[in-house]
Amino acid sequence: MVTPTGTAPRRGIHPVGLVLLAVVSVQFGGALAATLLPLVGVPGSVALRLVLAALLLLAVVRPRVRGRTRADWAVVGAFALALTAMNLAFYGSLARLPIGVAVTIEFLGPLTLAAVLSRRPRDLAAVAAALAGVVLISEAVTTPWAQLDLVGIGLAATAGVCWAAYIVLSRRTGARFAGLDGIALAMAIGAVVTLPLGLATAGAELWSGEALLRGLGIALLSSAIPYSLELMALRHLRSGTFGVLLSLEPAAAALAGLLVLGQVLSAPQLVGMSLVVLASILVLGRGGGGVPRRDPAAASGA
Predict the structure, then answer these.
(1) Which UniProt key words apply to this protein (predicted)?
(2) What is the value of pTM for the model shown?
């Protein structure tokens, strides 16, 4: 793990600003992904994101492959499985739900993991409040049961479970792989697994200029840019501060949905989102059990 110094760099953007930029980048990458889904579908979108992100990481990181044990490959394989399943489930939810709703529901996964690991009754109570927020943002109170998109809600919740598994497995991967080798190899494995599925469902459209351009934008906004920003910020931020900043992801997702996709959330949905954000700040602001980010900082053992 990172041993934060709590000091800010002398030059450049403040580490808090770096994390906020990373949060905005990730969520606008998600909004861009929602525009790719109609072109190539969920498997195609995930394949493009993983293939392009893997190529970028492999070119920069050049991970060591030789000399790995079976146990090493088993751990990074499980990590890749969690990463791939998380992306498939989340992109599937984006095809059915506003991005602000999907991200808020997904956030329950790492939030619950942090609360369980912290073993503080107050943190568990915060998760209960977050669950109430999810009920509001999913419109389960105001919408007839038959009209609820239960598949979309279920996919977002599944993505949250996979995100929690990703956090656990990223720590184990970081213990076996130096630097960014673990995340680079996991991305590559995920790309190999999803590419045939993407080709089977999207066909030649997967390689169209428009799809490739959007896919590259997603790879940069959702992976390369936020990974770099967070790695720089984590040298100077405590985990609690980092967790508070990442708790703003649902709000950033709602903003991206509004500006990029024209998605407007209702007042009850905004109240529900606020409950989840506040619960996340309470739990993660104390460093409650880990940082809920899908990033190489965790995977590298940093």
Answers:
(1) Cell membrane, Membrane, Transmembrane, Transmembrane helix
(2) 0.86
